[in-house]
Predict the structure of alpha-L-fucosidase.
Amino acid sequence: MQFSFAFHFLLAFAFLTHSTATLKNKKTYEPTWESIDSRPLPAWFDEAKIGIFLHWGVFSVPSFKADWFWYSWQTKDPEVLEFMKKNYPPNFTYADFGSQFKAEFYDSDLLADIFKAAGAKYVVLTSKHHEGYTNWPSKYSWNWNSLDLGPKKDLVGELANSIRNRTNLHFGLYHSLYEWYHPLYLQDKNNSFKTNSFTMRKTLPELYEIVNTYKPDVVWSDGDWEAPYQYWNSTEFLAWLYNDSPVSETVVVNDRWGGGTLCNHGGYFTCSDKYNPGVLQKHKWENCMTLDLSSWAYRRVAQLRDIISIEGLIAEVASTISCGGNILINAGIRSDGRIDPIFEERLRQLGTWLKVNGEAVYSSIPWKFQNDTISKNIWYTSKQSDSEKVVYVFVLNWPAQNILTLGAPQPSSTTKVTMLGYYDSFLWNKHSSSGGIDIVFPYIPPTQLPSMWAWVLKLQYLDN
């Protein structure tokens, strides 16, 4: 592979002009996966559990099919071809959508307030998708960025400021390594990635730019799969990010840094879109999923049946957290900057639920069981203190005859059962055959139910 002088100059420039003072006792990470993978994940990420993902770009203008609209058009998807034929003149190009991406109703303060109300602890905004349009005034994306074309403003900067001024959420950025139709990328691709002009002149400069300008606590990489990590110079960038960037102590990254890295290398693993294995994982992972079950981007043609229910969303949260993951909940934003009311409703509903049940979510750790051995739709988390271990039981469906039988927990004579948000203890009996526990749910008037959708039991002083 040919590495140009420009790369070494770029790396040196980043170290000299944008580095933070390195503490004497701070470990220095080498540009190898062995070294990069040895970095401990900052504690805030595992404790956070809940994040919001935002897909937004020029693709939000047609808002048809999904964020891969341009690619689908170029590869002659019949539905997209028919859509363009019916609605746009013959010579219309994808670039023409750029001037229609106006973000005229973009209110970053309102968005920050919604995400805070949702109970999220971090937000990841699309800085650039595979179309190449940057939602910030990038010096490396001339006339294809949010200041030169369309909104005439710094979309990334506005949300970053609102998140930091109005909430205690961590701010993060999604960034696509590749661009479908950039001439330099296509040239490198035609050269079997033995040249890396696109990496040196576009991808790496953008990454240094967003890190130094916006100081994100999450760098969510994507678009890596066509080329090896050596082409992207991923380990060199990550070594700088961990050693000398302005977010070296707090930043977390995912696992999409080139061929072979997915689910193998990086900070936390995403493994695939909407990854939710349902069993405990050895490595920290994240379930990035969508409120619109059919799309990452906003779709004007979406119907109510396409949107996940609040019951389904809470079930996704419970199963993810139980197995040691974080959940990154995606909403597509309209081209005018608004979040769709149905997405806002789901997020606020989740926040209402978390106000009652967040004790079982935030800073929790997996228990020895994730599912129950007898009853379905049960998930467990736990917390350990100096004095005791508490086990939390996510009950997704109210039990028939108000009796919940659990096989995993083994009660002791002093076991205490309560429901988060409810004032009184529950009666229980040791289950005769399994050695588990039968929990008696009392009659609770609807006005006194702590939650409308799912309920969390707190078990203390178990034998196991």
